[in-house]
Write a structure and sequence with these properties.
Blueprint (H helix, E strand, L loop, with lengths): L1 H12 L9 E2 L7 E5 L14 H9 E7 L9 H10 L17 E3 L2 E3 L3 H9 L9 H8 L4 E4 H8 L5 E2 L1 E3 L15 E5 L2 H4 L4 H18 L5 E5 L9 E8 L9 E4 L8 E3 L3 H8 L14 E5 L4 H46 L4 H24 L11 H22 L8 H20 L24 H24 L3 H20 L7 H19 L5 H23 L8 H11 L2 H14 L4 H6 L1 H12 L6 H6 L1 H20 L4 H26 L11
Parallel strand pairs: 2-9, 2-10, 3-13, 6-8, 6-9
Antiparallel strand pairs: 1-14, 3-11, 4-5, 5-7, 10-11, 12-14
Helix pairs in contact: 1-15, 1-17, 3-6, 10-11, 11-12, 11-13, 11-24, 12-13, 13-14, 13-24, 14-15, 14-16, 14-23, 14-24, 15-16, 16-17, 16-23, 17-18, 21-23, 21-24, 23-24
């Protein structure tokens, strides 16, 4: 434990470096016009069908925007209220009803029932302050102007008042575009006529053209697809500076909230337009201003095609994640049942039964890592992307399985198991350090459509990484432990455990607040079990305190960095100072408890974990021969159980953390047990001569 602490504190003493910060997406200007088009996606923006928006995209920086609100499917009201509050918000009824018509008040207007909207959203787990955008602009002596119902909903201050309002672009006089630093325009043709998309897009393009023809040429234009409408997906985001040739560079937008070139979020819109309008950006906002990201292809068609591909990948992986995991678990169960039946009825073929079942278990344990490795190739570009993704996962799975079964380690019961765990942990570690590219929209990674996390370890990735790291450490400690060299066995546990904690928690790598809280006790307790130290409740409490200490140190160091370079750790430190940390904790606790509403997970996940606990705690049971040959495995499984249970409690994915841990730990344990059974029955090495 002391060694782990020294390693981590040494790392924390260094200077945090997470790459060169991106340039701001635009310096403050006097005028900003935000044009929101609910349902607009990059597939709609074409040179001939929508020439005005196509030209606008060529004049500025572009990106996909994740518009996820409180609910999985965002409606226009969700989008406009989220822009108003700068955090996820929703209408009271939660459906896609028509937006309320503002009540005229001189040259301005009031949004009906705005007080009820504010109270409703203030009471949600996101505690959204509807009207914040208008309040900030009014606070600097400015004003807000709006066109259309959605524009009024976004631009209204906390009283529901918009200073200048017109119901349509055609009714907005020329001078109206210059009255206020921000004008919000709702172009809702797609939402009003969803069955006439082609005609609606032509009208949208015409409306955007009318706006551009009336606003001064030095006005900053922000074009956003503010909602999903019918199908969740990534939408259009453009920032254009028509009057400044020096800003017309072929670039993608990005934001500190995503750290992905070509991807921003809807909660980033509010701080972006505030900065562009020369207004202060409140620290309480959950998003961050857009920035100039990586260069995009010189040909605009290629740049837009890349954004369409990422949208396609996001939609396919989100749709396939449940069927994939159901097939993975169901396929294993069927294979194991068939193997049990064959074992009873075909005694002469028991050698084949053992071999096939062991391969199935190892392949199943390898599958989670394969879902990330599949992103090494652009499967979304093939003719049938869904088939390309599945083929990529299968190919990666077989490649890792071949490595696990081809070396001299295959003769040890924990050899292939340790290799699979090592490949899983190393793949995820390397990806986190490199920027989380493989995790982006993989089947168990960070889903853009969920818009919960875009970089570092998400909760599902953490569960796989932590489980694989602990089993790998236990496997490597096994030979020394079997020889009676407990101190020598401790070395791989300390090295792998400390490295796993650092990679999981380091800002800009794993950036995983709850993961460190869960993984640190697992590593400390594994070290105790390996060295034969008795684990008491007091020592378990010390192990938990070590995790809290490391998290606090990471949060403090990250908080000391500039606000636009902080990660989740530094943001939480700021939230503590602002008095918002309790609301964040309450929201995560609420999400964790809601995860228990998943009937299948809640009913099925405890069973394999109870079996795993029974196996690990019964050292004299049916797997006693396995624990004799691989004495580190029992300690590793206990460490996995501790980490998974704490991870369930402190992460908002809740029971999904337990499910992903079981998804790799159960088949690895089974594979090791089958290997031992082969040797106990005197079955020859089935892998001799394997490639």
């Amino acid at each position: 434990m002391t060694a782990i602490a020294l390693v981590l504190l040494g790392m924390l003493a260094g200077t945090l470096t997470i790459g060169t910060p991106a340039h701001a997406a635009g310096e403050p200007s006097d005028r900003v016009v935000l044009i929101g088009v609910p349902g607009l996606r990059w597939g709609d923006v074409k040179p001939k069908a929508t020439p005005v928006m196509w030209r606008l995209a060529g004049e500025g920086a572009i990106a996909n925007i994740a518009v996820r609100g409180v609910a999985p499917l965002s409606c226009p009201a969700d989008g406009w209220l989220t822009i108003s509050a700068g955090s996820r918000a929703q209408p009271i009824d939660g459906d896609c009803a028509l937006l309320p018509a503002p009540r005229r008040d001189g040259s301005g207007a009031f949004v009906p029932d705005f007080g009820e909207l504010r109270a409703h959203n203030a009471g949600t787990t996101y505690a959204a302050r509807v009207g914040l955008l208008g309040d900030v602009l009014n606070g600097i002596g400015g004003c807000t102007a709006a066109v259309g119902r959605g524009g009024a909903l976004a631009a209204a201050d906390s009283s529901g008042h918009v200073d200048y309002y017109r119901s349509s672009v055609a009714k907005m006089p020329h001078r109206g575009w210059t009255r206020c630093p921000l004008t919000v325009v709702d172009v809702d043709d797609i939402a009003r006529t969803p069955g006439e998309r082609t005609a609606a897009l032509a009208r949208v393009d015409d409306q955007v053209d009318k706006v551009l023809s009336q606003v001064p040429v030095d006005t900053t234009i922000v074009l956003v697809g503010v909602a999903d409408l019918q199908d969740p997906g990534l939408r259009v985001a453009v920032t254009a500076w028509r009057g400044d040739e020096t800003r017309r560079k072929a670039i993608y937008l990005t934001a500190p909230s995503t750290r992905r070139p070509g991807l921003v979020t809807l909660t980033d819109v509010t701080p972006t337009v505030l900065r562009l309008a020369g207004a202060p950006v409140p620290t309480e906002l959950s998003g961050s201003p857009w920035e100039r990201g990586a260069a995009r292809p010189a040909r605009q068609s290629a740049a837009v095609k890349a954004l369409q591909d990422r949208d396609l990948a996001a939609r396919i992986t989100r749709a396939l994640v449940a069927p994939f995991n159901v097939a993975l678990v169901g396929g294993q169960l069927i294979a194991y049942v068939l193997a049990a039946l064959a074992w009873q009825r075909r005694r002469a073929r028991r050698r084949t039964v053992l071999a096939v079942t062991r391969y199935v278990a190892l392949a199943a344990a390898t599958a989670p890592a394969a879902t990330y490795l599949a992103n090494l190739v652009p499967w979304w570009s093939v003719q049938h992307p869904s088939g390309g993704l599945i083929a990529g996962v299968i190919a990666a799975d077989l490649a890792v399985l071949a490595v696990a079964m081809s070396g001299p380690w295959r003769r040890h019961p924990l050899g292939p198991v340790t290799v699979v765990a090592a490949v899983t942990a190393l793949s995820l570690a390397a990806d986190a350090i490199a920027g989380s590219h493989l995790q982006a929209d993989s089947l168990n990674g960070n889903f853009s459509l969920v818009a919960g996390r875009f970089y570092g370890f998400g909760n599902l990735t953490f569960a796989l990484f932590a489980t694989a790291s602990l089993i790998c450490a236990a496997g490597l400690a096994g030979p020394a432990l079997a020889a009676g060299h407990r101190r020598r066995a401790l070395l791989p546990v300390l090295l792998i455990g400390a490295a796993a904690i650092v990679i999981d928690g380091w800002p800009g790598w794993g950036s995983d607040f709850g993961g460190v809280l869960a993984l640190t006790p697992g590593v400390v307790l594994l070290a105790m079990w390996i060295t034969g130290v008795r684990v008491s409740p007091q020592r378990m409490a010390v192990a938990g305190a070590a995790g809290a200490l490391i998290v606090s140190a990471l949060a403090y160091v990250d908080y000391r960095r500039p606000a636009d370079q902080r990660t989740h750790f530094g943001d939480f430190g700021q939230q503590l100072l602002d008095g918002q940390a309790l609301a964040v904790v309450a929201r995560k606790a609420d999400s964790m408890l809601h995860s228990l509403g998943s009937v299948w997970l809640t009913l099925l996940v405890p069973l394999p974990l109870l079996i795993l606990a029974f196996v690990a705690l019964r050292a004299d049971g049916r797997l006693s021969s396995l624990f004799q040959e691989a004495p580190g495995l029992r300690a590793g499984l206990l460490a996995v159980l501790i980490t998974a249970i704490i991870g369930f409690a402190v992460n908002d994915s809740g029971i999904a953390v337990l499910a992903l841990s079981a998804l790799i730990a159960i088949p690895l344990t089974l594979a090791a047990a089958l290997s031992t059974l082969e040797r106990r029955l005197g079955v020859p090495d089935l892998d001799d001569g394997a490639v």
